[in-house]
Predict the 3D structure of the following.
Amino acid sequence: QLQLVESGGGLVQPGGSLRLSCRASRFTLDYYAIGWFRQAPGKEREGVSCISRSGDSTNWAHSVKGRFTFSRDNALNTVYLQIHSLKPEDTARYYCAAFSDDNCERYLGVWGPGTLVTVSS
């Protein structure tokens, strides 16, 4: 079936870096924009950024500006989120989701299970 799977999370110290991946299977990723979201324990899910089909990204969360870099490799059916200067406030489960428009407004109902990022010393 239609699937997105996130990977790359883990435990990292404040100031460290991680690269998260979102790999699609059973469909062609280049047809869709991908939105990144995160949800901390006990908190509401928030949108992080949208990466368009052409690879352009739009940040939704002000706190990630300058620290989060997005890219996509359609040949590998994968989009990437490179996170630098991680803060404890970045601790959350990170999800990717598929959208039919490049502004990530038309949700297709396809989500990955998420990958957990824990920022702690």
Remarks:
- The radius of gyration is 13 Å.
- The chain has a mean pLDDT of 92.
- Residues 33 and 52 are 4 Å apart (CA to CA).
